[in-house]
Amino acid sequence: MFPISLEDRVKSAELIIEAEVMSDSVFATSSPYMIHTAYRLRIIGVMKGNASGLISMVVEGGRLGDRALVTRPTLQQEIGSRGIFFLKKSHIGFTPY
């Protein structure tokens, strides 16, 4: 793992938004060991790309019942927190870049 410069993040992100975290949900995928957390984001402003309203941002990791998956580095958000998100589209939704 190596740091990515802000310039490279801006170039590579498909969507850059300011958003508020409205909710989260944790789910397992078809792999018995993979857990994801989906954050529902309310878009406040768009700096790159096209989006409006609510979108989902999905990250690896989370706690589901008595199982947990911890990844490093990780992005853990609190409901009601705001931030600038650099996102890429994937097969499971938008993911942080």
Overview in brief:
Helix content is 7%, strand content 56%. The protein has 97 residues and is mainly β.
Spatially, the strands of the biggest sheet line up as 3-2-1-6-7
How many helical elements? 1
What is the helix fraction of residues, given as a range? under 10%
Oligomer: single chain
Q: Quick check: average pLDDT?
A: 88
Content of β-strand: over 45%
Largest sheet: 5 strands, antiparallel
Number of strands: 7
Segments where pLDDT lies below 50 for 5+ residues?
A: none
Distance between the termini: 13 Å
Shape: globular
The helix/strand order is HEEEEEEE
Class per helix and strand makeup: mainly beta
Key terms:
97 residues; 5-stranded antiparallel β-sheet; two-stranded antiparallel sheet; 1 helix; 7 strands
Question: How does this structure look, described?
Answer:
By secondary structure, the protein is mainly beta. The protein has one helix at 6-12; strands at residues 15-28, 35-48, 54-60, 62-64, 67-69, 82-90, 93-96. The chain has a five-stranded antiparallel β-sheet. A hairpin with a 6-residue loop joins strand 1 (15-28) and strand 2. The two termini are 13 Å apart.
